[in-house]
Every structure is written in C-alpha cells, then in structure tokens.
Amino acid sequence: MTTDSRTDTHTADLALMPRTGAPRQLLLLMHGVGANAANLLPLGRVLQAHFPEAAVISLQGYDPFDGMPHDGSARQWFSIRGDVEADRPARVAAVLPRFVADVRAHQQRLGIGEAATALVGFSQGAILALEAIAANDGLAGRVLAFSGRYASLPAQAPKLTTLHFFHGSADPVIPVRHAKDAMQHLAQLEGSDATIDIAEGIGHELHATLLDCALHRLTHHIPMRTWQAALGGVAAAASPNGGETLQ
C-alpha cells in the first residue's frame, strides 16, 4: 500500500510513499516535454506495486512549456524552440546543476544512497537523466531511459551507473537509431554496463511492452559492478594473503 503526497500539479513534484516504514529505494521520474509530473503517476504506481518499499517521486519540469497553446499545466525541462539539434547539449547543460542538486536533496531528505536510486525518464526526461549521469557518474545506481537519447554521446562510460534503454522501433519523435547508436558507442568504451529493449511497431509512448521490459531489467539484471565486486572478493579469498570472503 502507498500514500500519495501532492500539491498543485502545475508546480509541484508528486510523491508515492510506502504506507509504513522508511523507504529503502528511491525512484525519480522525469516526464517528457509538454507533460507534467501527474502524467507519470500511473507509471509510478506500477513501479511501486513491484517495489513497495520505494519512494517514487514524479518530478515537475522546471519551466512552463513554450510550445503550442495549452491550459498552463504543460511543462518542460528545456526549450525545444529554434535549432534544438545544435543547441540541445547547451540547453541540457544549463539545467543540469539544478537537477543534480534536486536529486541529491531528495536522497539526503529520505536517507537513501545513490546506489539505491534510479532515474526513470521519458523522452526529454530521459535525455536529462542520461546527461546527468554522464556528468555525475554514480548519482544513481540505474537509469531507465524510455524513448530518449543523449544530447551528445559521452566521452566515457559510467562505472557506477547501469543504463537501460527502452524504445519503440517506430518512434517518430526520437528515432530508435539514437538508442542503438548510444549502445554501440557505449560498447566501445571501457566499463560500460548498458542494456537495450526495442518494441517492434511501437511509437513514442510508455507502452506496456516496454514497461514489462523495464520491470524485468530491474529485477533480473545484475549490474556489472556487482559482478566485479563479487569476483574481486573471490580472488581475495583465494589469495595467500587472505581477504574478505563473500557473504
């Protein structure tokens, strides 16, 4: 069971908290451009049904959407006006310090460490999550990037964060080639730990097929750093000099 913590959906983050006890995991959700925090609450409820001890917080885009006319509830993390392709890295970089500070503030307030935090972004929210980790490796233990992309491909792979890409093959907004290119690029970098799931015939949406893939990754994918730590422990235990054994 969960409790909802919310205020004005036009301006505030929305939280789903465990009914009893302190949360043990933190899932931060970032919506796409033109949406708002309330739009990802259904996703939040699905996630918390599988992780009942988690705090699930849907974050609100910092600025009103400056695109087509709307009722005032639409938000954005950065503007999509003008030459977005050329300016995207700078636009994301401008908002990253605030976003990273907010992530750390939620972690500190709830007493949850980086390894127990996941950033879950859709579209523009996924761009923000990927770029935040590219600039701050280990800010979260995992990123779930739905229908997203990098603003610019990273120079090095994160060592402390596992990346999961989820994309529809027929996405007309952010074509799936961006996710494929990211995976190919990461595979060439030392220490990369990333997965990709592509749903055939699916467009730019949080489709149930991709949600099922995400739940599977969260519950079955063991991060590479965990394997490496285990193998290191085995090697230390077998060493003549001794060392800690696996528990």
TrEMBL record:
Keywords: Hydrolase. Residues 21-220 form the Phospholipase/carboxylesterase/thioesterase domain. InterPro entries: AB_hydrolase_fold (IPR029058), LYPA1-2/EST-like (IPR050565), PLipase/COase/thioEstase (IPR003140). Pfam families: Abhydrolase_2. The keyword ATP-binding does not apply. The keyword Hydrolase applies. NCBIfam families: PRK11460.1. Belongs to the AB hydrolase superfamily. AB hydrolase 2 family. This is Esterase. It comes from Leptothrix discophora. The lineage of its organism: Bacteria, Pseudomonadati, Pseudomonadota, Betaproteobacteria, Burkholderiales. The gene is ypfH.
